[in-house]
Amino acid sequence: MSHTVITKEEKSTLWSVILASSVGTLIEWYDFYIFGSLATILSQQFFPQTNPTAAFLSTLATFAAGFIVRPFGAIVFGRLGDLVGRKYTFLVTLILMGGSTFAIGLVPGYQVIGIAAPILVLILRLLQGLALGGEYGGAATYVAEHAPAARRGYYTSFIQTTATLGLFVSIGVILAVRYWVGVDQFSIWGWRIPFLLSALLVGISIYIRLRMQESPMFKKIKSEGKISKNPIKESFGKKENLVLVLLALFGATAGQGVVWYTGQFYAMTFLEKTCQVEFVQTRDIIAIALLIGTPFFIVFGAWSDRIGRKYIMMTGMLLAVLLYQPIYKGMYHLTDVRHKQEVESAKKLTRTRTIHAPGDTITLVKVERVYSDKTIQTESRMTLVTGESKSISTEIFLSGINYWLMIGLIVVQVLLVTMVYGPIAAFLVELFPTRIRYTSMSLPYHIGNGIFGGMTPFIATYLYEASKSEGSAGDPFAGLWYPILVAAFSFIIGMIFLSNKKRGDVMD
């Protein structure tokens, strides 16, 4: 179906292909992202709490571990996809992903089984990463090989929405379950439900994918006996193809990866941990921004069919380099109460005493401050029987114009994501011939998106924590240097070495 004009029947088949691929891929991203969306709670469940900061960083490191192994999944399943076919390969990845996610919901906490808890979670995250390493390449390749050449960017961009929609759905499910079981119960056991729901979602997706047909391009080269006997060797052992792999990695996917994870995941971490925005409101802000920005994946994917893939992606990276610092300073400013005017008459103080035993009384003091711009700050402090007082938590709740300004700042980041991510599936599949496409495109994508991008929340948070010292709160923007430098490097390489012309000749 590589011709420009397609029949009504071909168009119907194409949309069925897009639906089947997108539903499965969306569910896999949902599986993958509920871990990141619940990072704060999971750090309390699976890691010792003697040092909460270390526990949170360990959780982010476990989250990142799933990304680190994605290139290995790309090699294993990419090879399988080029030898056996696209359909059955990413059917296997779906089952592996769903099973691992379901199992995380069953792992006992650190208080029950000790060090075995984080080890088991890490193993399951690694299995998730391996599965996802084979999923995206299969879905993007499958859709691209059904799509007409002149509209390949448009049709593959629907696959690009699935990662963001997976995050959106994960947030929606988390908030719904949290509301259903209550805040306290959600932190204790309710967080398991989003993981366990994966079994139902994956079952639906398996049913849909079993009804799919194999890619027409793959069937053609299989019938002609042109399937690669060793796609790994052919992909990375031949100089001309290895050069394309390296250019795709350093000139496109590395920059795309850090922009993607900064604009969505690090933005959420920054809101909750650095700006101290309340848990539910943080996810409301991210969800609304995703809802507004997601259609632009389609816009930029379709636009890339007209003006080429390169300049859209490079513009997104350049804007990220230039705008990240002012955007995040704006986010921090909106929540920084030090420059806000407190309304003294609206201040509320609640004191609760808990008597555990004679002479063992803990006092919990909750102070709610209201500011002139309607920002609300809630601070909880605990006073022990020894007289020691320590802060438990501080939460910021935004209202009015500040709330919508915060959403606007996240929307800008999502738009940058759509610019770098919308066209990249079409860009990658057009670089490599059919016989080795699954293998060749999967590796640079998953190194760029998985390692360079997936490490962003961990590295950025670590850089911020490392900037702290005794008597200093640290530089809240220190973490931004990682995505800025990677995006800048990728922009330079891409502008110099990548071509803006579509390589339609490889779609054979």
User: Secondary-structure element order, as H and E?
Assistant: HHHHHHHHHHHHHHHHHEEEEHHHHH
Q: How confident overall, as mean pLDDT?
A: 85
Distance between the termini: 11 Å
Indicate the CATH class of the largest domain.
Mainly Alpha
Q: Please give the number of β-strands.
A: 4
Radius of gyration: 24 Å
Overall 3D shape: globular
Stretches where pLDDT falls below 50 for ≥5 residues?
none
Compute the number of helices: 22
The helix content, as a percent range, equals 55-70%
Report on this structure.
By secondary structure, this protein is an alpha+beta fold. It folds into 2 domains: 8-338 and 399-506, MFS general substrate transporter like domains (Growth Hormone, Chain: A, Up-down Bundle); 340-397. The protein has 22 helices and 4 strands. It has helices spanning 8-37, 39-46, 52-68, 70-83, 86-104, 110-113, 116-144, 152-181, 183-190, 192-196, 198-210, 216-223, 231-236, 239-274, 279-293, 296-307, 310-335, 400-421, 424-429, 437-453, 456-466, 481-497, and strands at 348-357, 360-370, 376-383, 389-397. A 4-stranded antiparallel beta sheet has the order 1-2-3-4, with no helix packed on it. A hairpin with a 5-residue loop joins β3 (376-383) and β4. The chain starts with 7 loop residues before the first helix and ends in an 11-residue tail after the last helix.
